[in-house]
Amino acid sequence: METSTNVVHHEPWNKGKIVGQKAPFKVKDIWALRVRLQMEGRVRELALFNLGIDSKLRGCDLVSLKVRDVTHGDQVANRAIVMQHKTKRPVQFEITAVTREALQAWIKQAALKSDDFLFPSRLHDSPHLGTRQYARILGHWVDELGLDRSEYGTHSMRRTKATLIYRRTKNLRAVQLLLGHSKLESTVRYLGIEVDDALEISEQTEI
Fold first, then answer.
1. Which of 20, 122, 193, 201 lies at a 20 to 30 A Cα distance from 169?
2. In the predicted model, is pLDDT for residue 33 greater than 60?
């Protein structure tokens, strides 16, 4: 007597999706979005975008910044240092002229004080912009640039400048410091560098 069993085939959750490292933004995309945000007077988003690119911070660290973290008195600083939530290690970053200008405009428009969060939440149950809110905002930016959302995420912001610096200098140690990684291997994985390339660079990098 024949028996038939119904076999249910479950497709993998990631079928057809790009998983792993998110793509960094290209320079042309960065400037295209900057111009768009400026033209449309989206002051808060411009400050968030520029600082996200400059700081190379994880989303959780970026959204929890306070005004005092990026200012000296009533002026935006050229450099800042923050303690990373994940590693509990300090990391420094530069604040370029375009970012300082955007931050100054945002702080003035929002009438933010030194102890205020740099990006206050518009939701009552959160004191500052949440990582999910940040991810949604970034998703809209990706849409506006005509890019594929599956290829980009908040880590695209963190990786963008780091990737450019690596490609231009091949200085893996410098990128490690800028990303606040404790191990060079973490930086290698994060940038997606081929192992042989990484070893060659590492051998040439005196620490």
1. 20
2. yes
Q: Is 16 exposed, middle or buried (0-12, 13-18, 19+ CB in 10 A)?
A: exposed
Among the listed residues 8, 17, 22, the one whose alpha carbon sits nearest the alpha carbon of residue 162? 22
Percent of the chain at pLDDT exceeding 90: 52
Measured distance CA(57)–CA(53) in Å, rounded: 8
Return d(Cα 190, Cα 23) in angstroms, integer.
11
User: 56 is in which domain, residue-wise?
Assistant: 25-157
pTM listed for this prediction: 0.79
Lookup: tokens for 13: 């959750």
The answer to whether position 177 is within a domain reads: no
C-alpha–C-alpha distance, residues 113 and 47, integer Å? 16
Q: Which residues does 12 contact at the CB level (< 8 Å), separation at least 6?
A: none
